[in-house]
Every structure is written in C-alpha cells, then in structure tokens.
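Case 486 in the screening queue. Each case pairs one protein sequence with one candidate compound; here the compound is IOT. For every case the pipeline is the same: read the inputs, emit a complex structure as tokens, and attach any notable structural observations.

Predict complex for case 486.
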Amino acid sequence: MISAATDAARLAERYAALPPVRGFALQLGAGPAVGSSRFAQVGERSRLDEMGGGIPWAGTLIGHGTLVRDGGTALVLTGELYNRADIGRALGDNVTGLSDADLVLALWRRYDLGALRLLNGRYALVLAEGGRVVTATDHAGSVPLYIAVRAEVVHTATEAKSLYAKGCSPQQVPAGTAVVVHHGMQRAISTWLPPQGRRIVRPDEAIADLRDRLGHAVHARCVGDARPTVVLSGGIDSSAVTALTAAACGGARTVSLGTDAGDEFAAARLVARHVGADHEEINVGSAPLIDELAWTVWAAEITDPDVLEYLLPLVALYRRLGGPPRRILTGYGADIPLGGMHRDTDDLGKLDAVLTTDMASYDGLNEMCPSLSGIAGHWSTHPYWDRDVLEFLVSLEPGLKRRGGTDKWVLREAFRDLLPASTVRRRKLGIHEGSGTTSTWTRELLAAGVPAGRIRDAKLAQATRLHQRLVVGGGHPADRVSELAG
Ligand code: IOT
Ligand code: MG
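Case 486 output:
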C-alpha cells in the first residue's frame, strides 16, 4: 500500500506540469469488456472499472486523474481549460483548488449542455447522467474524440486505434460538438462555430486587442509550469509566443529543429537570445526524418499528405526532446485565421475566401492533436487556437491581416516592441519548407521510380498504407516494413 501511494505521488510529481488526464479509451454501459486499449500516447495509465452517473464505466485513462462525480453525474475530462477565472465569475465562486473537471461539473449543474458553450479549452470529455452519455470536443476539436455505439454500449476513445482494436468502426466527434447518446440513439449538438461575419476595427485597437488576447492565452497555458518549452522556428508566430512565454514565466526554454536539407537556426537563435530563453538546437538527418512518417501517421491517425508534412518535423522534434515530460507551446495554427499560408495573395476578397475555406475544413485533420507530442510523453498546446484569440482573428477584416503588401500585418505590429526588427519583418517559411520535409519525401519517391506528376498520389497512397497498418491494423511504427512499394 505504502509503495503504491509513493508510486502515485512520484508519478503525479513527474507529470505535474501536464493535465491530469491526457487520453482515454472507455466503454460505458453494461456488457463484457472487449479488446485492449491501444495508444500512441505514452504516460502513466490507470484502469477504470466502476459505476458513475448510473452506469458502469470500464477502460483506461492516460494520466493520474480519475472519474469525477457530482451527485448523479460522472465525468472524465482529458486536457485542460483556459478560462477558469471567467468560469469562477459565472459561478460566483472561488475556484482555487478545484480541478478543471470539477468546474465542468459545476457548470453542468447550472447550464446542462449549455455548459459546453462556455468552455475555452483544449479538451475532450465523456459525461454520464440519467441514462444519457455525452461525448464532446473543444471548439477546435483539438483533442480528437471517437465513438462507436454497439448494443447500447458507448465505446469512446481519444485515439481511433483503440476502437479498431475492439472491432468497432470509429466515428469522429466533430469539432465544437457534443454527441448525446440516449438508449442507443445519437444526437449531435453544436457548441461552437467559426464566426462568419467580419469586424471593422481601428488598427491601433486591433493591435492592442490581439496582444492582450494572445497574452492571456499564453499565460493560461503556462500555469503550473515555471519553465515551459516553446517550439521556435524564428518566424513571427512562434517568436511572439516565445516573447509572451518569457514574459509570463520570467524565462522560457526554446527548441528548434534542423535537418541536413535545411534549417532556420539563425532566425531562431536571434529570438532566443533577444528574450533570454534557454535555447536548444536539434539536428536530424534526411533518412531518419522520413522514418518519422510512420510515427506521425500513428499519432495523428490521418492520411492527408500536406498536413503530414507540417506535422512530421514536429514529431521528429518531440521524439528527440530529452528529460522529463514537458509542457510545450507552439505557434501552430496562426496561419489559418491570418491567411499566412496564402502569403502571396494580394486580393483581400480572395484572402478572406481562402481563410473561410480553411476554417470550414480543419475538422478531422487532427493537426493539433496531443498525441503528436504525447508519443514522447510531452503535452503541447497552441495559443493561436485559444477560443478568444481565434474568434478575434477570424472575424478581423482582411485589410488588417494584409496591409501595405505585408502578410500577417496585425500580428507583426503587435509584437514590434518585443522582438528584433528582422524577426518582425521576416517572410514566412512553412515548417515543411524550412525543414526540407516536402523535398526530402519527394526525392525519396522519385528515387523509387514514381513519375514526377504522380508524387502527391504516391504520398497519399503511402500514408494510407501506413494508416491501415498502424491505426486500423494495430501495428507499431518501430516495426520496419517498407511502405514505399505498392
Ligand atoms: P509553420 O507555421 O511553419 O509552423 C507551425 C509551428 O511549428 C511554428 O509556429 C512553430 O511553433 C513550430 N515550428 C515550425 N518550424 C520549426 C522548427 N524548425 N523548429 C521548431 N519548431 C518549429 C503549417 C506551417 O506552415 O507551419 N501550419 C500552418 C497551417 C496549417 C494549415 N492547416 C489547415 N489549413 N487546416 C499553421 O497555421 O501553423
Ligand atoms: Mg506559422
């Protein structure tokens, strides 16, 4: 007993900077337990086998958290909330000492399903009450959540592979949606949609507002860790996050990835030095870089080649970060509401149209999923997709996103005083370009005899084979199988 308690305390301490639950595979309802849980995410695991909200729960949690109860309601919350103070105000309570799961239950008691419209967080949850099972994602669907209902039993998991292992066909819960299951029947309720309208704001007000919102988003993401890590490319997105993290915590650690096909080390070093961050550079050869593809498909459970090229270098980086589990902030996602991927689009109407398309199509791409860093035990979080930052950026009129020929103008202006002038001016280089991921993968396929006009198809086919083997079929990325052929 003593050693079990000491073990729990030791684990809680090791993972203190991370949310108490970072993933789950659960079955709610009476029925024999089928299959074993499979996760790409690593970390301490606890078994759940108990009654909650009037029904049996069985399965596995990643983390040191538990099932949380309030009267006849039971909840598992994975991830974390970023608007705890606002929630406290709504409840009229001091929320110090209450867990994020406790806060969700307190809101639930008062607002029922409407509680989910009040949350700003990076989470997925399962709740049971009076015969209803509710599964829900955050506004961005940033923690993927899958369900399958079979004979009135709800199977749900944060990784699809766990449901395939049970012989189920997983259905992904859409971003900003709660799926309510009652007597085996499902109903989807929208809790968040991207704003469709655009606001005309004075430039100086937009700059101040963005700085304030991003500052809050970074601050909320640093709570509980005195030395968070920022993955830093030296571009404006991650440099702004680095400056705010250093200001919020009185210091930061930064890390940059380079490969033999390319790096942005000089740009990142300049920013790290400017804000006094403790900086690290990680180098990967081009052959091991492409080996990361299997790990990336395994973690993100997707086949889209473009998105895989954005995520692969990050996975390569996370898997090489030494030491205890870290809390990691990224600049990921800034380019979506700011139109940064369309840096050469001058026409404001077109810029608004592409960002509207991007905001209508991110769901299911899993580009911000926790398992990307979770396969190495780290927790990652993305301040630009904080609900308050994202709503603000999406709804800003495009003339403040592109101004005088400068892309991401409002963001650059907002950080002019905190960053070197050359960083503020620096032209965007996508992670897939800067790391040489796109070119290295293309070269490998050309060398294998794929015609130049068929490269994208070949990438998709390769990713699909990996998905079939690793996600559907239960394989492991460390088992080397050539995926190039076929
Ligand atoms: P990019 O913006 O280059 O990189 C995303 C984040 O990854 C950066 O902000 C930074 O935190 C980290 N990062 C990038 N390069 C490095 C590096 N060499 N070392 C360490 N960290 C690094 C693609 C892209 O261009 O990434 N992502 C876009 C767009 C996604 C498109 N998705 C969509 N339409 N649904 C983005 O907005 O981040
Ligand atoms: Mg970016």
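Case 486 observations:
- Residues 46 and 61 are 5 Å apart (CA to CA).
- The first strand starts at residue 21 and ends at 28.
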